[in-house]
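FAQ
Q: What does a multi-component entry look like?
A: The components come first, one per line:
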Amino acid sequence: MKKPIIEIVDAIDTAKVYEELSDAKSGGICVFVGTVRDFTNNETVVSLEFEAYKTMALKEMAKIIDQAAAKWPLNKVVMRHAVGVKKVQEAVVVIGVSTAHRDACFEACRFMIDTLKDTVPIWKKEMFKNKTVWVSAHP
Amino acid sequence: MKKPIIEIVDAIDTAKVYEELSDAKSGGICVFVGTVRDFTNNETVVSLEFEAYKTMALKEMAKIIDQAAAKWPLNKVVMRHAVGVKKVQEAVVVIGVSTAHRDACFEACRFMIDTLKDTVPIWKKEMFKNKTVWVSAHP
Amino acid sequence: MEVFLFGIAKDIVGKSTLDLSTLEVKPNSVKELILFLNDSYPGFTKLTSLAVAVNGEYAPQELHLNAKDEIAIIPPVSGG
Amino acid sequence: MEVFLFGIAKDIVGKSTLDLSTLEVKPNSVKELILFLNDSYPGFTKLTSLAVAVNGEYAPQELHLNAKDEIAIIPPVSGG
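Then the predicted structure of the entire assembly, as tokens:
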């Protein structure tokens, strides 16, 4: 695997991710982009706000890529999360991977976004019209 | 589902696919890009050449999207295949889908590329240094 | 009755269309067309599979062929 | 002994860091720190989960805390 791109940024440029993942040894590239949806639990979402414990988040993101690389033969990986206020339709996370065959890129991409949501110290606050909610904080 | 984008083109612009899939009702976008790999069965690939029965291929591509839309709640879909000679690292197919939740976008994207490879009348010729091979033609 | 040829089918026949209108006994069905191809061009018998599309849809073997149909030979597809 | 607070932990305490150096009885372990937080700020007891990171790694309850450790309270994460 080539050195992965792991970043926490203010804004995600989705247009450049293919160039970053393009690779002569790869026949498949799978990319997941998480975006802000306008409704959650039937309430209109105005925006989301993301906060990260940046140094630790970058370490946890690197661990996820190492775990994926131990399971599947990965060629290139991009894992980029945004922080700050994100409006509807904006990208909040992008995870992409290129592999020789498509099985591995789909499975690794799915594993990485699932694990990121479980372990990486980033917090999402939903901003509704009349309230804000830290997602997953309460049962 | 919004009207899907279904195209057979001479060259694929991967940078624009997110803009095409971006959607206020979607929290997840999954994109698969098939690219030309430099080796197949331990032989150096110089290029691939794709030929399509275009009118029928577009119909079969539309059927696949209809089948996926019957299985998963899809918001936007892009299915674009290239024809002609493609060099190593070039994109030959892009399939992207945006959905409210990520489960559906991964599953629908995977279903669509798998089914495209099975049913859409497009043919791939591998160009090696000293020979050419129509992929899958012979057992 | 013109038949479009794609992929390896084009290589087997040596051209991209096949005119069946000059044949004395024209194939009446998809099944007869496939028998004709296998007999006339043995390369077809070596393929992994062979399908026929009529008017842009995969056609069952029993489908009757009409003079105005758009007919295409579909060797094993390999897109993606 | 300064503790970083993120997400809802910041709201519960009302600031983004918590200075424990002035406490008479300082927590000696992750477990004691969590007990201290639950006692001092009942909002913590209502969370789905509560973890502590020491020097940028998730820390087990029994881990001993040193004055120079970088300590952070990790309420339920929700990235992505």
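Q: Is there any commentary attached?
A: Sometimes. For this entry: The mean pLDDT of chain A is 97.
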